Structures are given as C-alpha cells and as structure tokens.
C-alpha cells in the first residue's frame, strides 16, 4: 500500500530557524501524523529520544506501539522491519551509530534489498534505515565511519544523504514515502548547525543532486558532512578571485550526475570530496562517469579529496584524517595548475 501523498504546506506555513536534528524530528513527526502505518524503531529512540535526540518527544505523542525501543540487536531491528513491511507497515529504523550497522548488514543486503526482486514485484520494502555517519565528534572506535559506498553498490537499495535542515526535513519524508528501501545517511557532526526552513518552499526530488553555490572556475562535488566544508572552501577561494561551483550530490544511489556533467562542461575541472576512503568509493564512480561523459571538456584530471584508506583513527588523530578546507583548496590549486 502506497503512503499518502506528501503534503506541500501553503505559503502561510511560515519560516523557522532550525538545526538539522530538529528538522529530522519535524520530518518524522509529519510522517507519523500523515500515515498511521509509519513506525519508528531502534535502540533508545523512545523514552530517551535517541542519543542525538532526533526522536525526542515522539514516543510521548504517538505511543509505544509506534515509536518502539528495541533490544541492542541491529540484525533483529532490520529483520523485524522486513516482516512489518510485508504486513503493510512503513518502518523507520535508527542505527545508533554508523559502525553499528554491520551486525545488520546481512539483513540489509540479503533480505531488504532483494525481496522486491525475489517476489517479482509483489512485495514492496518501504523501509528507511537512518544512519548517523561520519567523524568530527571525537568519538571512540565504530562511532565515526562512512560506510555509504558499501550500500551504494547493492542493487535494490536507495542511498541518500542530507546536508542541511531543509533537505533533512523534506528528504526524510520523501524517503519514508518511497516504496523501495532507503538508507538515509545523516551527517552527525552537522546535526546542530542551523538554517532557515521555509515550509512553503517545495522540495527537490529525492534522488537528485543540485548546485548549492554557482561558480565558473572549478566544480566541487560532494555530499553529507563535506558540503559545509566545501562551501567554506568556496568562500575562501572567492577572496582570491576563484569562483568554485559546489554541487551537493544528495543521492548516492541512484546518482543524478546531470548537474555535475553540465557544470564540468563549463568549468573543465572537477574536485570530488568525501570523508569516506577513496578506493572503490562513491567518488570513484563519479570520477569514472565524468571521464566517460565529459572527456573532451576536461582541462585537468578529476581530483579527489577523501579520507585515507585506513580504519578510522583514534579521535586525537581524526583532524589529520578528515578532509578539511586546506586539503580542498590544495586540490583546487592543483587542478587550476594544469
């Protein structure tokens, strides 16, 4: 059964300044109000409101039968959600931290991603798996990883990442409406950054990328927590007269590379940025596709700024691991030097 259509608030809905965390909370609340088949489940999502308070107040307002505290068992959370989806529900599962997703990996890859295909389209899997991901919070092992490339590779899964409160609010509701399983990666070190949320502004399509800062010298494509870093780099570069065009990929599977191709054909240069290790990654795929589609427009090789191909380091070392403004600007300089 399809979810009710996503309502577009009228122009009188108003504008408010919210954090990404609050926008996600508002998006979940709107989905719970709109569709009684929407459920939220995960570790500490109920009475505690989640470790990042994303689900704060939802169990109180919607009840324990719709906002469920689960055992510490990610495989059980995903497996139970699969059964609920078969019965017509639309579960939203929270994975408490990115590195905790791996006990549920088999359920996601072997069951969640394949049941629609296995049943010849008879069984839909309208499940959202929310994953706070990335580093920058000074956490211990298994709390700062970026596993999005693992799931973007799996046929049958949709993978998206928000980068600001507006996208957080709308994209989460759109993902809950989707009849396909969606892994929803949230940049947890950006949870408390604020922006204006105008509820009267219609959302962009869920599986689309968009230019978030126009420019003419170099295209910089990124997603999730690195969008803010790249926007800061663009501001710094502009002081020296270099205008960077920043593209937020937003959807990692499927990829919407039309805006990237269009931008690269104008600038002739591309720098890709992500926290995840570079080898066999989302940035690898984007680089290959741009080379295929824009070869004669390129004035320099596609360059990448990523995390290193190592396990995520102890928190005292993460500043040296994570891409930062200086590393992005260095790649821009190298691209312009060709």
UniProtKB/TrEMBL annotation:
Highest taxon in the source lineage: Bacteria
Where the record annotates domain Transketolase-like pyrimidine-binding, the positions are 18-193
Required co-factors: thiamine diphosphate
The record, for SUPFAM superfamilies, names:
Thiamin diphosphate-binding fold (THDP-binding), TK C-terminal domain-like
Q: Which UniProt keywords apply?
A: Oxidoreductase, Thiamine pyrophosphate
Instruction: Spell out the Pfam families in the cross-references.
Output: Transket_pyr, Transketolase_C
Q: Per its UniProt record, what PANTHER family does this chain match?
A: PYRUVATE DEHYDROGENASE E1 COMPONENT BETA SUBUNIT (PTHR43257), PYRUVATE DEHYDROGENASE E1 COMPONENT SUBUNIT BETA (PTHR43257:SF2)
**Protein name, per record:** Alpha-ketoacid dehydrogenase subunit beta
